[in-house]
Amino acid sequence: MALYEGIALIQEKQAVVLDLGTDYTKFGFTGEAAPRCIVRSEFWSAAERRVRRLHDYATPDELYDNLVHMLHLLYFRHVLVNPKERKVVVVESLLTPTLFRETLAKVLFTHYEVSGVIWADSPRLCALTLGTPAALVINIGAKEAEVAAVVHSCVVLQALVAQPLGAHAVHAELARLLDEDNGATLDLPDDVIEDIKVKTCFVSPLERALQWGSESPPRAARSVRYSCGARGSVTVTGRARELAAEPLFARDHELASLPDAVLQSLARCPRDARRALAANVVLAGGGAALPGLRARLAAELRRLRAQPPYAERLHVDEFRFHEPPGHGNALAWLGGAVLGASDAGAARALAREQYAREPRLRDWVCLLDNTPPHHPHRAYLDI
Amino acid sequence: MAYLTQPDYVKYICSCGQLKPITSLYFCRHCLKIRCGFCICHEVDSHYCANCLENMPSSEARLKKNRCSSCFDCPSCFHTLSTRATTQQRQVLQDPAAGGDTKVESKQPKKMYYLSCFNCRWTSRDVGIPDQPVASGGWPERTNPHAARVNQLIDYYKAIAQQEKQEKIERERKKFNIRGKYITLTDKTGLTGAMARNIAGLPSSESSSSAIANFVPSVATAEVDELPEDIFTKEVNLNQITSMPQRLASPDWQPVSVSRLHPLAKLLSVKRSQRCRACDHNLTKPEYNPGSIKFKIELLAYYHVPEVKIISHEPVKPGEKTALFLKLTNPTGHEMQLRLLQPEDIPPPEEKEEPKSIDKSLERSLVLEKDTTAFKAIERQPNISATSRVTSPGVTLTLAQRDDAAEYDDDAQHDTNDIILWRKSNKLGVRLELDTSAEAVGGSPARALVALQYSYRNTVPPAPSAAACRDHTLYTTLLLDLGTVSSN
Ligand SMILES: [Zn+2]
Ligand SMILES: [Zn+2]
Ligand SMILES: [Zn+2]
Ligand SMILES: [Zn+2]
């Protein structure tokens, strides 16, 4: 009983937490406050003599190879531990493609012989870092912004809203604005665009954003000369600095902006949870680090709440924001580190023996996994 | 042959199906098979600092988070920082009570140290880190600003898990009591749950409930940080803002401003040993000394498998026979018999195990630590599409053993014939014919497949139980890159 479990816990190797993002991979140990490394999700391919991105693959075999190379790099260059007989907490999005999950499981269990894998979705992990019963998690990743409501450690699945409004949308808009302002097709590489964004861009407050759309635009912020080495230098105008993040807030007839996504997610939540959720908003993901983004989002939410179609449906009076105990880009990772350190996580691990017996992963979209135990259909599912 | 800057013209097919040049292949002397970095098991052997070449035991490395305590990297350009010394006139104010009536002011030159980057001129003084009186170590260590909160969270969730488990046990016991009214095991032994937890060194349930009671969830606020007012008017100084790599180099802090950069303790490196997955024997094992680049065990294919190099070849034309000149080398200390074959002539590897049902083999793999299923899962069909094949000359070539002294003999022996161009100690130049299929499209890459059959003498002392079989006939398949198919 408790006695034996105590001994087992001492002997167990410290588990690692893995978050393979589109642009950046976060990797480190459970129980620590920050990942050991945050590196680009890419590796040097000796056979092709070029840097390969982890998420660029055409076939399952290619993905398998990518994962093998990436994990080798992470284990032996950054974290410096043996993967063998060590548990892994995998931080994943609820929308991770099945092929990716299954290939990752295969690589971890057969290639690296890890002893167990705990699969955890990022909204729940972000909520875990707050300790509140309800949380509305807005995760702005590289490609997508995902809004998920977490109530008592359960994701409200019907309220999951995702829009392609990640860091890449900001990068594309910034590249377009730079081309426009410099009067040339600059074709800057991604890392330069990212660097310009990180160093110069901010999200303008709501009043100014509205002014930009009107007849009399406000006085732009100072422009910056950005030198790109051999390419010469680029002028980053105040307009480009301020408007690069506007695609996140651009409303069209489909109401596909970031604040709309948040309000739609709230509207799909159970009525009695909405107020609690709106009072516990947390922003996560590397894309949320832009200065001014939180303030702008708060202002937009407060403005749109009172407008149709949300005014008569939502009945949410206040939005409150959390200051999570970690950087946004590693917040889901931190949740994984907390989960893995408490016994609750270890109990949920998929053990290697179990995987060898039945190589199948639990998935929230699968009826086998989401039918409650006493549901009348359950009997047909248990074979 | 493998080149540093050019593509690999000759690739061997590893036993797992990967195509690799001979320099990145291993040879397991126990399985007598070629292995590669993809199908072997890598293990951390020892930790060391690549800068000061100091070994660090694994337990200490874990404690120090895999960072060297005396070497630092520049947080700005990631170059290694150097320690610079300055002499500082330090005024020592002696305590009047101890030193007598008069205040004695003594000037004492003292050496103080700071860190400086020779590459970008960053110094630890730039960010206000005080100089240190000792040359190595002593630099202020920082802890993550959220560490305390994260520990609270962990304690909280641990307590919750503990409580849930306790409740579950309680429920089970109640069920048990109602059913049979037996005394439970803990009651019988006089060991209560609390005592058992105490013995196991776990926090008692009281403290776990206090961890839950004392936990304060994160508090959300309605106010959010607005942009600083001056952002619309202030000049941006790009040199004062950190880049993404600079931020991510210290994941705990991710400083935005250059003035918050701190020296990065150097990340250790590891020496890896490599193991055959099929038999668990070591393929490479490095020497412990970090300064040494030698290996205790080094089973590289380069020392065991005949090496093939392309000397030259005629342009490959569709539907035609062209000449191909190869150089074959015997790297072993024993005479080698070598035949060139067609890939399909390789006899299938004899299965030592009788075929079993999948369930049985799986069960076996669960019982035994060493299972071959893992290796089987990694294997895949090699991706080879060849336009040409090398016609097998049908003769057995004999290659002399490697003789380092013979390297100095200049004249090649000329016992030449149709196939053998020249012979020089353990090397052989051969002339072969290349048969290209008529379907080959001009301009497409020309590749030729050839299989080798070679004799191999195993020098591993045989296990007492195993039959002492020293001479083996082994096979390997190669893919030759012959440029492109010429179009005319
Ligand atoms: Zn291999
Ligand atoms: Zn060092
Ligand atoms: Zn530097
Ligand atoms: Zn072996």
From TrEMBL, chain A:
It holds the Pfam family Actin. InterPro entries: Actin (IPR004000), ATPase_NBD (IPR043129). CDD domains: ASKHA_NBD_Arp10. It comes from the Eukaryota. Signal peptide: none annotated. Belongs to the actin family. PANTHER family: ACTIN. This is Actin-related protein 10. It comes from Trichoplusia ni. The gene is LOC113499376.
UniProtKB/TrEMBL annotation, chain B:
The keyword Coiled coil applies. It is found in: Cytoplasm, Cell cortex; Cytoplasm, Cytoskeleton, Microtubule organizing center, Centrosome; Cytoplasm, Cytoskeleton, Stress fiber; Cytoplasm, Myofibril. Its main location: cytoplasm. Keywords: Acetylation, Coiled coil, Cytoplasm, Cytoskeleton, Isopeptide bond, Phosphoprotein, Ubl conjugation. Pfam families: Dynactin_p62. GO terms for cellular component: cell cortex; centrosome; dynactin complex; myofibril; stress fiber. The keyword Transferase does not apply. PANTHER family: DYNACTIN P62 SUBUNIT (PTHR13034), DYNACTIN SUBUNIT 4 (PTHR13034:SF2). Belongs to the dynactin subunit 4 family. Subunit of dynactin, a multiprotein complex part of a tripartite complex with dynein and a adapter, such as BICDL1, BICD2 or HOOK3. The dynactin complex is built around ACTR1A/ACTB filament and consists of an actin-related filament composed of a shoulder domain, a pointed end and a barbed end. Its length is defined by its flexible shoulder domain. The soulder is composed of 2 DCTN1 subunits, 4 DCTN2 and 2 DCTN3. The 4 DCNT2 (via N-terminus) bind the ACTR1A filament and act as molecular rulers to determine the length. The pointed end is important for binding dynein-dynactin cargo adapters. This is Dynactin subunit 4. The gene is LOC113501285.
